[in-house]
Amino acid sequence: MTETTSHQNEMQPDIVSVSHWESTSYKGELPAGDRFLMEVVDKREQTGQLFVDVGAEAGDIDDILTASFEISNLPGSRTHTQAMHLHFNDDEMAMTVFKQGGKYILRPETNVTIVPTVLPNGEHAFIVESIDG
Questions:
Q1: % the chain with pLDDT above 70
Q2: How many Å apart are CA 31 and CA 8, to the nearest integer?
């Protein structure tokens, strides 16, 4: 558990250096390679939200994967459900993923496109990007 500072009543971030999940660092077979930092900011008790940031330890400060989790509702619905927000940065959200039974509903934000692509191994995927750049 992270500790709170008594005078600020804010959660201290939990930052851990990690490698590829299948690396020798975790009894896997791949070389450890570049190190990444994972930060978890737990605001569940204050706002009902959990934030996770992941970025290369020696990488570009703007190249961070950020996700936040909360209980929300589908637009136009009053039913509460699990939601995950993917962020481009602190100021711009990319999309929200809502859980609905055994399905996920993906809702891109305004000015966000989702275009198909093919991965190097031939698998199909999608690119989510901001129209604004």
A1: 89
A2: 41
